[in-house]
Amino acid sequence: MDPLYDDRTIDAVTRLKDAAASLADLLVLPSRPAVDAWQKAVAGRLIPRLRPEFPLVAAICGGGSAGKSTLFNTLLDRAISPTGGRAGINRRPLIAISAQHRSTPGIAEALCDPFGCDPQPLEAADQLAVPGDPLLHYEATLPPGLALLDTPDFDTGAGGGYQNREMAEQSLDAADVLIYIFTNANYNNRDNTDFIARMLTAVGTRNSFLVYRAYPAFSDGEILDHAGTVGRNLYGDRAGQHVLGVYRAGEDNRVAAGEQPMRIVPVGDTRTGLMAALSQLDPRQVKHALHRSIFEDAMAQAEDFLQESSASKAHLALYLEGLRTAQRSCVQDALGHLPMDAVVRRFSEIWRDTDPSHVKLMRQTGRVVETPVRLLLRAAKWIGGSSDAKRDKRPDNEVAAAMEADLVHAANQLRKTAVDPAIGLHLAPGDPAADGLRKTVRRLAADTGATEQTTSEGQVALQIPVHPALAAAQDKLRSRDWRADVDDMLARREALGSLTSQLEAELRRLVGEQRARMTTFDQIRQTFAAMLNIIPATAAVTYVLHTGDPVGAAGIKVKLAGLFGLNDLYALVAIPATAGMKKADLKQLEALLAPVARAWLTHKLTAIERLFEEKITGQLLERGAQTLDAAAGQIHAMAQSLDHGRRVLENTT
Amino acid sequence: MIDEHKARLRALGELESVRAEIQGLAETLEQVTLWRPAAGMGKACEEALVMLDRLAERFDRKLVVTLVGPSGSGKSTLLNALSGVDNLSLTGHRRPTTQNVVAFCRQTADAGQLVEALGEETIQIKTSAAARDLEHVILIDTPDTDSTHQERHIPIIHKAIGLSDVLICVFDGENPKRRDHTDFLTPYVRLFSGPSLVVAVNKCDRLAEEELTETIMPEFDRYIRDAWSVKPAAVLCLSARSHLRHPAWDPEAGPKHARDQFDRLHHLIRDTFNASGYSVDRRLKNARSIRDYLKQAVGEEAGKERRHL
Description:
Chain A is built from 25 helices and 13 strands. By secondary structure, chain A is α/β, with parallel strands linked by helices. By secondary structure, chain B is α/β, with parallel strands linked by helices. Chain B starts with a helix and ends with a helix.
């Protein structure tokens, strides 16, 4: 058996169709109609029509009053389809098959299947003038291998729509080959051309016979010329391959009056009469070629769809990454005024409390050493021209107000980002996180509409549009009572800012660890460490200098800016060197403080992040992650089925 | 002559008042910027004002009667039959379909207004002795509306219709209810008052007489009124080819009967449209029809809004 039709191929196609449907759902992909089209074409239609006795279905179609029914009657050699000058008489398809099939079970059913109905016999000609399901006629003279289908025209208008288009579409869909009849008035009609070309070539390509109904005065050259135009309109460059023959039918009053059959004459290279040509076609071969072309198109479309899905999945991943980046930056903004100095002070206290007695004595001298540093600080402020030097003396309630404002501001910012149609990010160019995002934005720009720009301040500005799969989650977020959420967050702010018992315990653990790690030499050096009541300033600076974690470092910078002002901060960087601190001291300082800063930061960042996820981004991130996960599975399934499909195409001819 | 001048002056006055009404409507629309349909309606008003200006300019010019229709409906044959010159506009299957506007008038100078508006390369002027009595009318034929060349044709047709006073919409009698053609004409038809529209169902010689009179014409009459919601001056069945000097019928496909209403169309053009002063009336009626259409459109939208509220 041909691998095109074997069970494994049918399974693969079913899996392909299921995976595609599920991907279209998950990722809200716009190409769903195409997916549906080949689903229908491949899965529904293929199998019942493969029986060897199933006839070839030739559909006669054309515009209103083109002569479809007259041609049908002529080919059948019996006037059963009503004809007339009034366009749009026939409102339902008429199928004629050989009388031999009257007793073959299943044939009539399979013929009517594309129309979604049971076979109904034609009893009277006037049944055809009433819209409805197709009717079936058994004709003794028709060869068993051929079924003829007369179709309603597809161009008559009614009430702002087309009268019969849906029915015409089903008819063309059900056909294996087409007989297209046209006149001088409509051979080049744009509307008809577009419709029929779409029907013939959208999924698989159906071949056709062209019949030109023209005045006898037309020369064969003109007939061929116009038929050539029709062929090009239908198939483009591939017309030669798909037009099976060109015929002329004379404009004749006796024919129109039903007194004579139509005379259908082959023109040009076409030698065989139309009926003979139709009878000579091998139904299985035609169907196989058609099915193969449908299968090819289905595979090609599936491949496109798979690529589109992958791009869409990458878009979703990019959006989620962007949202997380935005969240990180908002979390840090929310910590802009948190009392880092209080934390370090507490650490120093714990440290001092556990100091050996000789160190406690030495501490008095520390005050002396402290003085030059203070002088330097003042100088730094002067150099930086900073005017907010007084901010380090902010009263507690003011700090509290600022912290509240920070939190509200950051939360608002994040919420806006999360409900906006696109995420806007401003990142420092050296930031490794920024580099990764930039690369992805550039790669996906065409598929997602994401953009990258450099601002006048030299920052990288990224815009990442939201993925449609998150539309529902975004709507939900939008409809939440934001005021209540903010109030709730503020109520919990107290706990965020204060030294929780957990952090206290962490600090104690760190002090213990540090002491245990100290060598004898270090313990001597501790005399220097004793003067570390200048810690708040230098601690974080050291951390900034020596850490490789830009996100964490940025966080501390923000806090120091809060304490000293940004200009001072950069001036302060020089302190350790000019203050005569030895490299070893610096190292020790860092070893001492880095874990403190890190512990504190992690603690607070995590707490705020949790709060933000609960109130703002949680659903988006979760829904996004689930979608990514599910999509990855379906994409894998599709890729596997496509591999099978490709192998099938290689093995059939 | 004095009367004609008077009539013209009166018409100019009335046109000005129609203008003022539309202007008022446009200004009102401008003030309600928050109402969503206002922008579109305002644009329609603007376009209408441009058309009125053109009408005013045309008051002392000839009445432009334009044939529009799909490929193969027989526009050119009809122009030839009406002009009495068989080869005025190239017809039949041998020709390349009409790609430009063909104007038929008494003398080249008559069509000056059209040449100016359409550009020399898009219009062909045909004069003939047969046009002697067309003192006040220019007949023009347009490219088809429906073929695969329509992208090129439609801007030309659009311009030509903008310059027209009367439209003769030609339909192919063998398939008159084709949707694409009806849809194409619908927006244009709104710009003309009923008496400025003629519907011509051509090639009726190809249809059996009884079917034509009993079914096709009555059905089509209903169809066109539903589609356009306007009552044309006339819905006529024609066999333009029968009125050529040499119809050269195919022996097997001659006319099935002699019924047609070509004479009524001929009379309409030669007597009614060609009457002196008619053009002024026609233009005024078209102006009023534009105004009424705009008012109605704005009213309908406002009504929708009210129901909404």
